[in-house]
Amino acid sequence: MKEIIPAIIPEDFYDLQGKMSLVAGLAPLVQIDVLDGKFTPEASWPYNVEEDKNFLDIVRGEKGFPYWEKIDFEVDLMVEDPFTFWEDWFNAGAKRIIFHIESKTNWETIIAEFKKHSVEKDLPFYTELGFAINIDTPLEKLLPVIAQADFIQCMGIARIGFQGEPFDERVIEKIKEIKKHYPEMIVSVDGGVSLENAQALIEAGATRLVSGSAIFEDSDISSIIGEFRNLLQ
To answer: Alpha-carbon distance 18 to 6, whole Å?
Structure first.
């Protein structure tokens, strides 16, 4: 199934809430980009504040995610050490968790812990495990984890952690290479995705298009999501 996924780098809880309100009912799922200010130059909510009560309440199950009845979320962990972060997001109810292969961590340990927490794939609350790879990272870096991955996310920009960065066409060949060796693998692409390059990405083999600026900077969000969806049919 092909998807258009709005991407949000939240400045704070209320920024997240506001942006989710704009796409709730228009897309089945949003991507929340989590930046720790180490793996990326900037930090995002909730790691740009010392302690955020809203986030703690969500993790503890005392409060649901904004618009949780209308829209699911996946989380893209652009963090230096995901080992200390991923479980919070798992407990918060993320439908998918994305780890960056360039992070400094022991993947064997994380995968084992992740699988221990997860339920069977055919159950409704199964959490998908994804790995993201940067444009300049060789595909060989994925070899130790790809057999355990539910999907791979290719970054379509050279400088991650920022919305509005220019699209890097090298990602098209990267997607083709993954599909050549792993034809059944679900491939997502994040960064620089627009109506202008969506068709080329789909033809290369991507089935999930993640887009931030192209959606949230458009004056008619409903219309542009509809246009993306038409391309994905």
So the answer is: 13
CA separation for the pair 119, 178 (Å, rounded) = 27
| Phi/psi of residue 21, nearest 5 degrees | -65, -30
210 has a pLDDT exceeding 70: yes
pLDDT at 123: 63
Residue type, 232: L
Residue 230 CB partners (closer than 8 Å, separation 6+): none
Q: Residue 133: which of 178, 90, 198, 193 has the closest Cα?
A: 178
Q: Region 71-77: what's the mean pLDDT?
A: 97
Rg over CA atoms, the chain: 17
Compute the distance between CA of residue 44 and CA of residue 35 in angstroms, rounded to an integer.
5
- CA gap 8, 121 in Å, rounded: 27
CA distance 190 to 184: 19
Average pLDDT for the chain: 94
Q: Which of 167, 172, 173 is nearest to 194 (CA)?
A: 167
Mean pLDDT, rounded, for 168-195: 97
Tokens encoding 198: 């969506």
CB 45 within 8 A of CB 11: yes
Phi, psi of 166 (to 5 degrees): -70, 140
Which alpha helices (DSSP H) does 37-169 contain, by range? 53-59, 86-92, 107-117
- Phi/psi for 70 (5° steps) reads -110, -25
* pLDDT tens readout for residues 6-32: 999 999 999 999 999 999 999 999 999
